Fold each of these.
Amino acid sequence: MSDEQQPYVRKIDRRTALTWIGVVGAATAVGAGVVVYGPKIGGKTPGTKGYGTDPKLVEPAPAPWPRLLSDGELQAAAALSDFILPASATAPAATALGIPDFIDEWISAPYPDQEKDRPLIRNGLKALGPKPDAAKLSALPKASPDFFKRFRYLVVGAYYTTEAGFKDLGYIGNVSRATDPGPSAEVKAALERELAKLGL
């Protein structure tokens, strides 16, 4: 984050961030938000628990755990998020979509995968400082490969579960069509050539 850039300001509410964790967790097969975990031992988030096996996400409900990132860590997360996925001609920067809020919610949640990520992500962000320069960000893949790889994984995973991310990929989802034109003449010709080679 350069000195000219404005500090990151939270963009998504906790309810949205929590739903996002479920989506990213399911997409990456970590199962966040679907397994019951009770109070933690060994100094890990004492007295907190998850939502259980059947969370009612359609009803307003406060998160049963606090967000853990300090403001400095959040600013570092914003700088690194935009370093990984800056704005382009066709897509917004990661911070424009609230990716740092997702990162905060992810490492704050009391589930095994999130608790495993917590020290790695927080220590990496603390080492960066709230206003890392381009040289420091560019050095991360070699200087802190485990941190950078996991942080990038989370940023990209979250980004491409948003509408803007889908649009950037060209994914249109389940869009109904009145007609199906079928394969193009070029594809049909290629298929015919391959079938002829097989004697079919």
Amino acid sequence: MSTQPDHILIVDDDRDIRNLLADYLEKQGLRCSTAANGREMKSVLEHHRIDLIVLDIMMPGDDGLTLCRNLRGGNDAHAGTPILMLTARGEDMDRILGLEMGADDYLPKPFVPRELYARVRAILRRARALPPNLETAPMAGSRAMHFAQWTLDTVNRHLVAADGTVVALSGAEYRMLGVFLAHPQRVLSRDQLMELTQGREADVFDRSIDLLVSRLRQRLSDNAREPAIIKTVRNEGYVLACEVTAESRGQSAP
């Protein structure tokens, strides 16, 4: 049975760049749609299932950071769609803000299309599977993980609060939380978290782990000043400071 190619949405106000990237990615076997702004991006998302969004930061009107924040703040089917942010070379603040707002990766301009394709494939691989290190963990055969008045639905890949509110997670957030839930009450260093969530494709950008933990705390309503769920262990890393119970695939929900 043939499978549909991954569908990539390229959002950039420069038509030549949009067409160049779309043509290249389609030659690599991907399906591409393009949008020049946030309005067109919304229209594409309403009519198509998108597997990954390539989103330029510098655009007139709502810029890429705003569009990323709005997408991650929603609870629709696209809230967790992986995002690759295109940033101006040397603009570290844009890169940091992009990660804080929920981007899964970033690529500074100028770049060659081949590098973009490599990043896209890496993000798609990570979005579809937990790292191999977690395959033997309790999470692997579970349909849900319960912790600190929260439930991680591993089938739909989102969080559920005690009152039933559904909280969408990006692919990076889901993988990071999966690592913590697989290793509760165990201090994990930044290097360990980087390896477990991104493996050999890990970026050397040290703050990416801290930013990802910060985003998870926001999703979990965990006080950043005095967190109760994901705690900081000074000079060592982070720890999920609560018990975790797994609900097996064949088990009925409580």
Amino acid sequence: MTELSAAPPRIAIVDDDEDVRTALEALVSSVGYIAEAFENGDTLLGSERLASFSCVVTDLQMPGINGLTLARAIRRDHAMPIILITAFPAPGLKQQAAAAGVSFLLRKPFDPSALLEELDKLLR
């Protein structure tokens, strides 16, 4: 009898910087997750596939809605973990992120293994 394996987790990558988006998508895909990139939060929120994601990795500062606003909008209807990435950790950001439902705050620049380790913890 063969054992059926579950589909790999789907990760939404949200960043307005195309190079960062592409790099994160490649990193996440390299360890077997299914990654899909979005250029902004509005595009992700408007996607019919939003509920299919296991986790969202999003930048904080983006045109349109920022990462905190995106996290709050996702949390209204979905319980998936959210990883927020920022290069500018302002005072109080950790508390704001927690209040918005962010699971993990990651400061740029970061070691790619830190993101992969956190994804592994959140998606076990």
